[in-house]
Write a structure and sequence with these properties.
- The structure holds 3 protein chains of 3 kinds.
- By secondary structure, chain A is mostly helical.
- Chain A is built from 14 helices and 2 strands.
- The termini of chain A are far apart.
- By secondary structure, chain B is mostly helical.
- Chain B is about 75% helix and about 0% strand.
- A two-stranded antiparallel sheet of chain B has the order 1-2.
- In chain B, strand 1 and strand 2 form a beta hairpin.
- Chain C is of the alpha/beta class.
- In chain C, strand 7, helix 6 and strand 8 form a beta-alpha-beta unit.
- Classes of the chains: A mainly alpha, B mainly alpha, C alpha/beta.
- Chains A and C meet through helix 1, helix 2, helix 7, helix 12 and helix 14 of A and helix 1, helix 3 and helix 4 of C.
Chain lengths: ~350, ~290, ~450
């Protein structure tokens, strides 16, 4: 659904940056997100004790960033973002199983196929706005889930698609075998490079004229139309980009596990939304941070406390209620104050 | 043919319970423009409260009266604390807040009442079967449920159209300063509407208990279906929800008869179709 | 991101990041964990093991989600086994690490990976759903860690899932029990069966198994209807069952689906004209049913707490002492799994290769009666029991309780390889025919 035009979107302060001067500042901070991401990737590398969890964090972070492209930048709440993630996994898995164990082929296939799928689904869903948009994305996700469940000969149904071989990543001069259990370090580094590159692309996208127009449409579709933008086309392009990135994340997840499982898509879509909002809708790095926090909470709480979801739920409610800008917003707000204080003293 | 008529009757029974859930959801949306994702969780809480009340007093009829009252109070408390701050915010935030609240409620119930479900005994007086003159005889309790739903639909309609609550709240959503200037304590009316919506969810919980038992996840899947009902009928449209709830119950029942494997997906296909050809829902207005 | 964020703030953050980085270097990818020793393809695990090094067993089961009671039973079973073994496998202390798969494959994968990489477990076991067992099996295969499956599925014994080096299956393959029980059903309950099956893999496996077994058993399948997992409203299925002309309705759902179906069937008086046969029974389901709904139904089971067998009764007694009620059918798998692992490790069979050699063809009897581990697909062949639900009066005399009703064992079908798919059949992928919608 789109944000109501008449309600000021207070939480997303970025939108208020309209003057050229402030837009310049934003550009600088926008690129700092990439440095933060690199920092986070290094920290995770050295601190998270479980290699597969570390790799999962990168993948879910990318997925959360892709949903945030719609949510935070486009004001579009998709309740069906598990569709490109799940089916991105199937595409990669099937290509690796039946065509060739080649990572480029698998990931390329996922990106391309999910881009096409997202364009088709988006073309239908974006004809409606607000709750109707959300419900339509949900309906398509349910449809995708139903097909995955019933088409057993291809997807394995709820038994899952198993036995996906670990792919080879061919680069000029050498080839890497991507085995998450056999050689998690290599897998992590390759994933980190892919995630960083896609992140950079997403930053470029949000900072491009199209990305800015997208944020304009979020604030007021009428005004954006008045300025001569084709709102529908811009939203559709974003939906497609977001779907491709989610497909890529799904493909990486299939490689990590050598397996594609099936769990209800509306639940999975909800989880990724929680990650994005927990971290912060205002920036791509925020949603990445949300994935980090969610997965670490899940990993450590679930071992010690059976009702860990109540904590996640409560934190989430608190977040929406009191800190709509998410953890990242709280963090930058606090640090901003600290550094201002520091400068005042100096 | 007899099989088909039985199936139609059963479809309408299933539809009636969907109508009840969808109406509460739609009431809150239509009047307050608030999307309450926690509606399914509150329905579950209603069913649990009913199970406890039944355990304490052992009389279904007391539970039937008492639970909606308790749920209305819970609803009012919820409105006061968590919901009210969300009115000035956009619908997306409301949806997300209640989405998180759902997690908290379900886990909370698991912690208090355990993860397993429990049985709820229906009223002894209705433990017989009634012949309708067509199809197979149906359990009297199911027919009783349909009657109650009918009464609730009528009552809600009167509440919205024969009292000034509906008028005031709708006016207040458009221009709450003007309503306040007229000396109306708008906030109180909003509480009433929210509480009534939650009470209806609680009533649905009481009625469902003897059919399915109660368990923590009982509101999760059915809520998605209730949303589909509301959207297909038209968001904010009272009779839309009634018609679409019955329709979806019927379609699912008939699909079960002829192609049971598709029973889970037809409501969503219907929704995509309706959204494509009647964007505002079957009876929705722009 | 906020516009007001100055670059100074970001610099601060980077400083914190750096500090964190320097602070924590122990046990991470960067800290050198993972690496070679988990290296898949069969060569792992052969390290020399000092006798006092703990034997680590990872248990992955559903501790949240729809089958939480089964998951808790599995945890209880594993813990009870360790307790009765005095925490030791020979000289080695046993350490059991329990993780929650939330019934979701993606969580099962993550926990399994964490167990093999972070905890470096020697064995994996546990599961309450086919979707998670196959996920865990995949990780076990990659890591070369033996995995003992403990839930009903046809797939674990077959390609592409089965790996002779690491996969073992203690729970029956779906068709095994169906083939064993069909002759009894057809002889004693009626010759026309209607199958009411959950629309997921387990239901489709049952459908295929009944259709394959019915002819030889002297039965006819008059129809199958599918219901989505988690169905609350079974009412629309009732007329279809009644009008099918069936004598028996075989219900294939577990847990809450089963409870809901029996409750609604009861409201409709379905049992007046039809026999109800439950393809899966568990005491935890019966706890929600009570005497009234258990009475008069028949079911098959791989375990019931009244089995007359010394091993079973020792286990039941210990379980009752620990938890105040008899065990259901799912804790026994974990109890057996832990006993199997501990006994083999105590005998020095602690590498995957030695374990495999010892397990193949092994005859054992812990808490489920005499069993044998078939060599070709590592399927445990165990007896199957036919149960009849008793009413309150009779049941209470025999030790039943209002909490979980009582079922009488009216037939014991000894383990027999003939009931299992043949060793040739399990070389092929399992593919039940895609059901016709209106079959």
């Amino acid at each position: 659904m789109t944000v109501e035009p008449e309600t000021p979107a207070v939480p997303i302060e970025q939108a208020t940056a309209t003057t050229t001067q402030r837009a310049g500042t934003r550009s600088a901070t926008t690129w700092q997100q990439l440095w933060l991401l690199l920092g986070a990737i290094v920290v995770i590398f050295f601190t998270v004790p479980d290699p597969s969890l570390a790799i999962s964090i990168l993948i879910f972070g990318l997925w959360a960033a892709s949903v945030n492209l719609l949510l935070g930048y486009g004001g579009l709440v998709s309740f069906g973002h598990a569709l490109p993630f799940g089916w991105g996994g199937y595409i990669s898995g099937l290509l690796l199983l039946h065509v060739a164990p080649n990572a480029w082929l698998a990931l390329g296939g996922s990106v391309l196929a999910m881009g096409v799928l997202a364009a088709l689904v988006g073309a239908v869903c974006l004809r409606r706005t607000e709750v109707y948009f959300s419900m339509l994305t949900l309906a398509f996700a349910q449809l995708g889930f139903f097909i995955a469940l019933q088409w057993r000969s291809v997807t394995g149904g709820d038994d899952g698609l198993a036995g996906i071989p670990s792919p080879n990543l061919t680069l000029p001069g050498f080839t890497i075998r991507m085995s998450s259990i056999g050689d998690p370090m290599t897998f992590y580094i390759v994933t980190a490079i892919i995630v960083t590159a896609v992140f950079a692309f997403l930053i470029l996208y949000t900072d491009s004229p199209v990305g800015r127009a997208l944020q304009g449409i979020r604030e007021s579709e009428e005004r954006a139309r008045g300025c001569g933008y084709n709102a529908r086309a811009i939203q559709l392009l974003t939906f497609t980009v977001s779907g491709s990135v989610a497909g890529l994340a799904g493909g990486l997840f299939a490689m990590l596990n050598n397996f594609v499982g099936l769990s209800p898509y509306w639940l999975l879509s909800g989880v990724v939304l929680i990650m994005a909002i927990l971290g912060g809708r205002g920036s791509l790095f925020g949603s990445f941070l949300g994935a980090v926090v969610f997965l670490l909470l899940e990993h450590y709480l679930s071992q010690n406390f059976a009702s860990w979801q109540i904590i996640v739920g409560a934190v989430f409610v608190l977040c929406v209620l009191a800190f709509p800008q998410g953890l990242w917003g709280v963090l930058t707000g606090a640090l901003g104050r600290v550094s201002q204080l520091g400068r005042a003293r100096a | 043919m007899e099989q088909l008529t039985s199936q139609i009757a059963l479809g309408l029974v299933s539809g009636a319970l969907l109508v009840l859930l969808a109406l509460g959801l739609n009431l809150i949306f239509g009047m307050l423009e608030f999307i309450n994702f926690s509606h399914g969780a509150l329905y579950m809480v209603g069913a649990y409260v009913a199970a406890y009340v039944l355990g304490a007093v052992g009389n279904f009829w007391i539970a039937l009266i008492l639970v909606p009252i308790i749920m209305a109070m819970i609803g009012a408390a919820l409105e006061r604390t968590l919901i009210r701050p969300m009115y000035p915010r956009n619908q997306v935030d409301a949806l997300l807040l209640t989405f998180g609240l759902t997690y908290v409620i379900i886990e909370g119930v698991r912690m208090i009442a355990g993860s397993g479900g429990r049985s709820v005994a229906g009223p002894e007086e209705l433990a017989f079967q009634v012949s309708l003159g067509f199809g197979r005889p149906l359990p009297a309790y199911l027919l009783f449920v349909v009657v109650v739903v009918g009464l609730v639909v009528l009552g809600l309609w009167l509440f919205l159209n024969r009292t000034n609550v509906g008028l005031i709240v709708r006016g207040g959503i458009r221009d709450h300063i003007m309503i306040r200037a007229l000396g109306v304590r708008f906030d109180r009316y909003r509480i009433v509407v929210f509480a009534v919506g939650v009470a209806v969810a609680g009533l649905a919980g009481v009625l469902t208990g003897p059919i399915t038992g109660v368990y923590p996840e009982m509101g999760a899947d059915i809520l998605i279906l209730a949303f589909v009902v509301v959207v297909v009928g038209g968001m904010g449209s009272f009779w839309g929800s009634v018609v679409s709830g019955l329709l979806i119950g019927l379609i699912v029942a008939i699909t079960t008869l002829y192609a049971s494997i598709y029973a889970g997906i037809v409501p969503f296909l219907l929704m995509i179709l309706v959204m494509t050809f009647r964007p505002r829902g079957l009876l929705g207005t722009t | 991101m906020r516009v007001t964020t100055s670059s100074a703030a970001v610099r601060h953050l980077l400083a914190i990041v750096l500090a964190l980085l320097l602070a924590g270097c122990g046990g991470s990818i960067g800290g050198g964990a993972g690496g070679g020793d988990g290296d898949g393809d069969g060569d792992g695990g052969g390290e020399d093991t000092a006798s006092d090094e703990p034997l680590k067993v990872g248990v992955i089961t559903g501790l949240t989600g729809a089958y939480v009671s089964l998951g808790e039973e599995q945890r209880n079973g594993a813990e009870l086994a360790v307790k009765l073994l005095d925490g030791k496998a020979g000289d080695r202390p046993i350490e059991v690490i329990v993780r929650d798969d939330q019934l979701k494959p993606e969580a099962a994968l993550r926990e399994a990976q964490s167990l093999v990489q972070e905890e470096k477990v020697d064995f994996l076991t546990g599961c309450v759903s086919a979707a998670t067992t196959l996920a865990v099996n995949q990780v076990a295969k990659e890591a070369g860690v033996p995995y003992i499956g403990t839930c009903q599925t046809e797939q674990l014994n077959r390609p592409p899932h089965f790996s002779p080096d690491i996969t073992y299956h203690l729970a029956p393959a779906t068709s095994l029990n169906v083939t064993a029980a069909s002759p009894w059903i057809c002889e004693n309950l009626g010759s026309k069966l209607f199958l009411l099956m959950p629309d997921y893999a387990y239901g489709h496996e049952q459908n295929a198994a009944y259709r394959a077994a019915a002819g030889d058993a002297g039965c006819e399948i008059v129809g199958t209807a599918w219901f989505p997992l988690g169905t609350t409203d079974f009412n629309p299925y009732i007329p279809r069952v009644e009008n099918s002309g069936a004598d028996v309705v075989v219900f294939g759902g577990a847990g809450r689906d089963q409870v809901n179906f029996l409750r609604q069937a009861n409201q409709f008086g379905l049992r007046d004209n039809l026999e109800i046969f439950l393809n899966i029974e568990d005491l935890t389901f019966d706890e929600e049913l009570g005497f009234r709904l258990v009475e008069g139904t028949h079911a098959m089971a791989h375990f019931y707490w009244t089995i007359e067998d010394q091993g079973v009764q020792d286990y039941v007694e210990a379980y009752e002492q620990e938890h105040g009620r008899p065990p259901g059918g799912y804790s026994v798998f974990l109890y057996n799994a832990l006993n199997l692992i501990a006994e083999q490790v105590a005998q020095g069979n602690d590498t995957p290769e030695e374990f495999r050699e010892a397990m193949e063809g092994l005859e054992f009897s812990y808490a489920q009666g005499p069993e044998v581990m078939r060599e070709c697909d590592h399927q445990a062949l165990a007896p199957v029991y036919i149960l009849e639900g008793l009413g309150a009066d009779e049941a209470e005399e025999r030790g039943g309780s209002a909490d979980h009703g009582f079922r009488e064992i009216i037939e014991t079908i000894p383990a027999n390889e003939e009931y299992a798919p043949t060793c040739e059949e399990v070389q092929e992928e399992f593919a039940p025919a895609t059901p016709k919608p209106s079959s």
